[in-house]
Amino acid sequence: MYAQDYQVLLDVAIDAFGGGMRLCHAPSDAMGDGRDVVVFGKHWGKELRLPSRLNGGGYFVDWILARLDSSRSLAEFVAIELQTMDTTGSYEAQVHRFLQTGTALPDKPSNINWENVSKRILPQIIFKGHVLRQEALCRKGMYFICPSPVYTRILARLGGSLRPYHPQPGALTFRQYDVGDPVAPGNVRLLEFKGQMTTTVDQVALAFTSPSNLPAPGVYEQAIRAELSP
User: CA nearest 150: which of 120, 182, 188, 130?
Assistant: First the structure.
């Protein structure tokens, strides 16, 4: 997800702040023309912890993009959460086999834990989204970056009925990426942007706690009766 020199971060900077943005490791790298975006996150700058909840732990935001004005002062910022896939089991043998031969093992060494992605990440982004909504300079809300299969599963988990909104405080913008076409051996497939959808934290929270894609009434009763039948 960080291919092409963290292209996903630059994509968000341009989408949130406008064209011509450039990413910086520190304010000292800024040119002072209003197009400098200081990045806080792994391998760029320290991760910024959100304020702790009362009698509870705090959360880290994966990335903060802070745009500086012409005086190199903070003008505005956006937060980014990035989620790939959660797996169970080990895929070490699969990786070694692929790197050595370019082929996959015939068996399936691990499983993708789709439900853990949904139930773990959704409460976090709802909480973080509400915290960021209180920030006067977080005018475009939060971005959520993920592979297309993860995006599809999350929408299915939420019932697929999120209303679209324009970027605003309290907004949540989903951006999905996928790998590009196959390339010759020794080359790297490109990371391709597949689209985005902006909604609000409230919409996600409502869909998460009041799902509309429920099974038909009576499914448990039918299952119990089937087991009780002689």
Answer: 120
DSSP state of 168: -
The helix (H) or strand (E) run that includes residue 186 is none
How do the pLDDT tens digits run along the chain, 230 residues long? 888 889 999 999 999 999 999 999 988 899 999 999 999 998 887 777 766 666 666 667 899 999 999 999 999 999 999 988 767 667 777 777 777 776 666 655 556 776 776 778 888 899 899 989 999 999 999 999 999 988 988 888 888 678 999 999 999 999 999 988 888 888 888 899 999 999 999 999 998 888 777 888 998 999 998 999 87
Helix (H, G, I), strand (E, B) or coil at 35: coil
Q: Which of 142, 121, 144 is nearest to 130 (CA)?
A: 142
CA pair distance 15, 33, nearest whole angstrom: 18
Phi (first) and psi of residue 199, to 5 degrees: -130, -155
Q: Evaluate whether 3 touches 190 at the Cβ level (below 8 Å).
A: yes
Structure tokens at 102: 């370019």
Please, what sign has the CA dihedral across residues 170, 9, 1, 189?
A: positive
pTM as predicted = 0.84
Residue 26 to residue 33: CA distance in whole angstroms:
15
The DSSP bridge pattern shows strands 171-179 and 142-147 to be parallel
* Among 71, 61, 59, CA closest to 39: 61
